Amino acid sequence: MEDRRLFDILGNAEDDSMERLSGRCPGIMDTQFDKLLAMSEKKYSVKKREIEANRTEKEKVSGDVTGVELGRRPAWITPLCTAASIILVTGLVIGSVTFFRRNSKGGGDIPPVAAVTTTAASTVTTEEITAAANTSEISTTTAATTAEEYVYTTKPYKEPDEVFISEYYGDTAAGLFRKDEEILGASGIIVNGYDTDDRLRFQTDPALGLYLYDIENKGEMVKDTAFYVHITDSRFHSINDLRNYLRTVYSEDNEHIKNFDENVGRAGEDFSKDSVLKKIYRYIEYNDKLYQFYPGGVSSCLPRVYKDDEPILIADATDNSFTAYIHVWYGEINENDPEWGAYCEEVELVLDPEYNEWRIESVTEREPSVYVNLRSKLVYDG
Amino acid sequence: MTGSELKKLLEDSPEECHKLLMKEYGRYVYAIVYNKLRCCGSREDVEECFSDIFAEIFIDFEYREAYKGDIKNYIGTVSKHKAIDFCRRLNTVKGRSVYTEEEDIRQLASDFNVDERVDSSELRRILLDKIDELGEPDSTILIQKFYYDMSSNEIAKNVSMTASSVRSRCSRAMEKLRVKLAAAGITR
């Protein structure tokens, strides 16, 4: 692992290092070449059709041409078009980012590789794996959805009448928002350890289109197969433990809680060890042990970064609810490019009747300008 | 192949032109994409991004006369920009995963003692120099094993050796590399 990590430094290389690395890049195999060429040609055809369609449209708009006048293309048109393209692309990127981030809240980090441990559990596991792999029985699991399919509502933005700063509300929101970052990654709960040797293997319905790293054959990909690895984090022994953990941060109406049951499976109830999975559960309970879906790969999360001079803005405060507006950068604060990586997180909090403590009801990402505008409306320090 | 030859081929048979472009520059583009996505994407992501890039190159050749000028430079630039965009998009979808130099340095520093004055590009250069010093096929084996994340079987095909030879050469080469890095002030 450490050896591989040493080579991570070669990522993001500048041009001269890149040249040296590309010299040792393995050649593209014939079969892969055909596949890549076909993919590229397909995308090219789509783009070409769009370009041709736009041209036809323009010709229609301009009507019949009765004469042709030769003219020089003005020198300023290229920089102007370039600038316009950049603005357009930037808008698209920001729009996409906002959209995807909103949908990425279901979260779950691919577990950190550092947490991988090897134990002597492989004998037992082998039997389980063999049994699971050698069957073609279709399980009775219904909805062919995947764990990633959290449902999120896109809340329209309603500008609050007034905002204020409050140490109490601000600290409450900040504490829970920090915890939200600590416990959830892109597609699930961040666990402190798992054992790839203690794993389960399932065939999956081809309709799911699963094509993932093969944990048993490193470097290879495998189709229609899902691996689950045993969570060794001492905090989690059951699905209920996971839910209770989430409830320390989220309210009962929060999407993570509302969708929780969709993403968990219990052996005997939702699937059997011989099942061909019709959906991908994020977590499963099997033989009194807790496993998580293991898609492979390595991932880390961009940390949230805040500016010291940007307070959390509070709005719509009542005895049992309020909304916090937090200006956040993901990764790093980049003053030169304030639009990239900056967001205004609209965090709705409620006083949870079950615990009589504050919990996050929802988090919605807004454009960074929302925070800037609200801050200009700041009425008083509470 | 020159720009005018590519233009002629494009006029005669766009498919052949595309194929030739990919044959000539595919490895270069793949290396760039892999470099940017290796820590945040899967092999599928690399392939998606790779095909995005070539689709754009094909379009640029047809509509924007991209065959004029320094083709390799143009392809390198498109690949780099596209791969960075793809990485950003991927990061936001997958939970803001990121691959930054600072993070690399922190990760590396946790495993190896690195002189604080050495910046990431300098470190990269030293590492590549030391790998080069190992000579072939060891340097290729190490890069393909630890950087391109290939299996010993795959590497064995590329360097015309058996997988077991690759494995033993790899571990010996890694030991040698550690010694060389230690001599350069980079120690575990």
Report on this structure.
The complex is a heterodimer of chains A (382) and B (188). In chain A, strands 1, 3, 6, 7, 8, 9 and 10 form a 7-stranded mixed sheet that branches. In chain A, strands 11, 12, 13, 14 and 15 form a 5-stranded antiparallel sheet that branches. The radius of gyration of chain A is 26 Å and the shape is globular. Chain A is built from 9 helices and 16 strands. Chain A has helices at residues 2-8, 15-23, 30-62, 77-103, 122-133, 167-183, 239-247, 255-258, 368-376, and strands spanning 116-117, 164-165, 194-204, 211-213, 221-223, 225-231, 264-266, 276-277, 283-286, 289-293, 304-305, 313-315, 321-330, 342-352, 357-366, 380-381. Chain A starts with a helix and ends with a strand. Chain B has helices at 3-12, 14-37, 43-63, 71-93, 101-111, 120-133, 138-147, 152-159, 163-183. In chain B, helix 2 crosses helix 3, helix 7 (138-147) packs across helix 9 (163-183) and helix 8 (152-159) crosses helix 9. Residues 96-117 of chain B have low confidence and may be disordered. The chains are: A alpha/beta (382), B mainly alpha (188). The interface between A and B is large, with 72 and 80 residues. Chain B: It comes from Ruminococcus flavefaciens 007c.
